[in-house]
Amino acid sequence: MMPATNSLPRTLGELRLSRFSEARLSNRTVKDEIRENLLCRLQRKDPLLPGIVGYEETVGPQVVNALLSRHNFILLGLRGQAKTKLIRMLIQLLDEHLPFIEGSEIRDNPYTPISKYGRDRIAELGDDTPIDYLRRDERYVEKLATPDVTIADMIGDIDPIKAARRGHNISDELTVHYGLLPRANRGIFAVNELPDLAGKIQVGLFNIMQEGDVQIKGYPVRLPLDVLLVFTANPEDYTARGKIITPLKDRIGSEIRTHYPVSVDHGIEITEQESWSRRESPVKLDVPRYIREVIENVAFLAREDKRVDKRSGVSQRLPITVLENVISNAERRAVVAAEGFTVPRIVDIYAALPSITGKLELEYEGELKGGDTIARELIRTATGKVYSQYFEGVNVNAIIRWFEMGGSIRLDETLDSASMLAQLQQIGGLLERTRELGLSENEPDAVRASAAEFILEGLYAHRRITRSEEYEFSAGERRQGRDRATEDEVTRKQRNRQQYQ
To answer: Which residues contact 266 (CB under 8 A, 6 or more apart)?
Structure first.
């Protein structure tokens, strides 16, 4: 266990006699530090990317290889692929405490200071130089690249006000106001959406990546910074909003491609982990597995739909926000109906349309149909797909026959569970088929009502029955037409038989 900060050495003299010895810290770069800690994790078989699902055999090993190789690297992937989350997790590979010269803006190493302030401090005070410590979370600096970012923002500029206040010559190094990159010295510097950074700013990163130094305003100020540089980018944005200039790409050690979940199970796990589903509420709520599967399949189907722009991608935030909206709609219904327990229904997924349409970038064909229509079709198709997994080969003719005999039912989304279940009990064989979802007759009304509605929506998705926009289920149009044709055929044969006789 690491010692408390107040028990750590507080002067350079004390530091030399501690575990932060000169032999250990003088030539140990941040990349060496990350490499050592990563090797220890590998030996202990600790999780390398805790909380990131689906990258265990793809992105994870590539990131590990880049870090073991001491590479600066870039993550390329569409939106919502956990790129930022991944790079923020790298701070866990840093030491708990790192000593630096107290007051140094660029966190000078006490044994090898690179700033004039640090060198002057050591020359003046020697072993009495005060030492402070950085926590690992203070060693991570992140910048979202935008076209208006300047060299001064990234690297620094001369500060004439500082020069005037302290009585320094304008050419003195002490008049420099350091930018984000020098302030990330001895840590991790991350740039999100790198293509959005202007070309001349990208050029400014060359020296720090290859030669390990920076220049400010043309002054011969050499700052051999010690940083791990990590970038993220959307590969489809190179031509739309900018590009990564070739010399900079050449200096990035590893280029790693991220991806969306490869299976629905992975997607469900990510959605459950990232969504605000466990919340304080007067209503106890349980989300069935089939509802989660429908929500996740909406995202999977959208990524394959030709009407959705694949260059933009469909973020994993879509199922996350849909699940949150589904839970909220079920919660609202239960509170109004004074129910203490509720279960989301398929109708709640349709109520979550606002969390779908805003995340779909549509192609021309999709724009003609409209976002709402596309979203509804995705939900219907996703429901049909999940329904097939549970009811493949299951005889549901009794349910369909009830509708063919003239039955119809209108399900109001505001209906409480008991009232809805009472309506659904009219449909012959429906509640019995909920056993296919692992339910028994002793389940709460909310559970059985949700399962029965899922079956009806699945039949609608497979065009076995129809449903109006008002959520009224009735006999399927195709079946009705086929039955009428059969009746006409029987009548015709009877007439022919009578004529023959």
So the answer is: 53, 54
pLDDT in tens, 109-161: 999 998 888 999 999 999 999 999 999 999 999 999 888 888 888 887 766 55
Taking the CA atoms of the chain, what radius of gyration do you get in angstroms? Answer: 32
Helix and strand numbers, DSSP H then E, in the chain: 24, 14
Helix (H, G, I), strand (E, B) or coil at 416: coil
Backbone angles phi, psi at 499, to 5 degrees: -65, -40
- CA–CA distance, 209 with 252 (Å, rounded to integer): 8
Global pTM? Answer: 0.84
User: Cα(first)–Cα(last) distance of the chain, in Å?
Assistant: 102
Q: Are strands 97-101 and 140-144 parallel, antiparallel or unpaired?
A: unpaired
Most confident range (mean pLDDT) of 87-91, 144-148, 163-167 is 87-91
Residue 484 CA to residue 478 CA, distance in Å, equals 10
| Best CA proximity match to 455, nearest among 288, 264, 296, 284 | 288
What is the model's pLDDT at position 152?
A: 80
- Mean pLDDT over all residues of the chain? 87
Contact between residue 448 and residue 341 where contact means Cβ atoms under 8 Å apart: no
Residue 96 CA to residue 363 CA, distance in Å, equals 49
Structural contact between residues 262 and 299, judged by C-beta atoms closer than 8 angstroms = no
Sheet holding 409-410, edge to edge: 409-410, 472-475, 465-467
- Beta strands 472-475 and 465-467, pairing class: antiparallel
> How do residues 241-293 score in pLDDT, each as one tens digit?
568 888 888 889 999 999 999 999 999 999 999 999 999 999 999 999 999 99
Torsion of the alpha carbons at 453, 457, 463 and 465, rounded to the nearest 10: 30
- Distance, CA of 111 to CA of 98 (rounded, Å): 12
